[in-house]
Specification:
Helix content is about 55%, strand content about 0%. By secondary structure, the protein is mainly alpha-helical. The chain folds into 2 domains: about 110 residues, no CATH class; about 120 residues, Serum amyloid A protein (Topoisomerase I, Chain A, domain 4). The longest helix is centred in the first third of the chain and has 24 residues.
Length: about 250
């Protein structure tokens, strides 16, 4: 049973697709009672983890758990049998070896950078992922997706002429365009990716960019979409300047 919306928890939990959540648990045979008991235990464990991380001074950008959240083997649905959720959760909670162990997390130092090559761009992008998590846009239903795609596309059309005239770094421009469009949701992120991919393809086709330079641009596009998706209400200008030099 899949009764919960596809919202991402601070530790990366989503209900997922096909009835299997991102923590690796299969909900297809869950009753309403099973689902409620599981979500209660999952939320309680996340709150415990959050307190432990907060005690280390980590109050945001928590590590993103996947199937390692429950750690024990996936056989028997990670210990969650049909209509036996309470007993399985109690067994897990009484056996600390089956639960994730919180270890100190050291975020990578952040220094705004500029780059030209794909290799340099990947290094910056990897640093963003280490600090922000490999964040993906939240899934939307068909109506919301269409609306966000239109909004993201209109944002690109509106901002492109102004952004082109700004005396700022090229990578900042790439990231800003993608960040702003992605803040509308998955549809906005996808339309930004389509527009960016088409532009890079045309730049390489016309000789304006080499393949390597174009791939370097794409890392700025990726950074912008990641930050815009993760912080839909954030200030893209501030978010991007944390990682990319605005002026050279």
């Amino acid at each position: 049973m899949d009764m919960y919306p596809k919202n991402t928890s601070p530790f990366g939990y989503q209900t997922g697709t096909g009835g299997i959540d991102t923590y690796g648990v299969n909900h297809n045979n869950f009753s309403l009672r099973d689902e409620l008991e599981y979500q209660f235990a999952r939320n309680k464990r996340e709150q415990e983890l959050m307190k432990q991380y907060n005690a280390q001074g980590i109050t945001s950008n928590y590590p993103q758990y996947t199937t390692n959240f429950w750690e024990n083997n996936a056989n028997n649905n990670y210990g969650f049998g049909n209509s036996n959720i309470s007993a399985n959760i109690e067994n897990m909670q009484n056996n600390p070896t089956t639960m994730p162990v919180v270890t100190p997390v050291t975020q990578q130092p952040v220094h705004p950078q500029y780059w030209e090559t794909a290799t340099e761009g990947k290094q910056v992008y990897d640093n963003v992922v280490r600090n922000e998590g490999n964040y993906q846009p939240q899934e939307q239903n068909m109506l919301d997706y269409g609306i966000s795609a239109i909004q993201g596309g209109m944002n690109l059309i509106k901002n492109f002429p102004e952004m082109s005239k700004m005396k700022v770094s090229d990578k900042y421009k790439h990231a800003m365009m993608n960040c702003n469009a992605s803040q509308y949701g998955q549809g906005g992120a996808d339309i930004a990716k389509l527009a960016s991919d088409l532009r890079e393809w045309n730049d390489v086709r016309t000789g304006s960019n080499t393949i390597d330079t174009s791939q370097g641009d794409n890392y700025a596009n990726l950074i912008g979409r990641l930050l815009g998706s993760k912080y839909p209400n954030g200030d893209c200008n501030e978010l991007i300047q944390k990682y990319i030099k605005k002026t050279l």
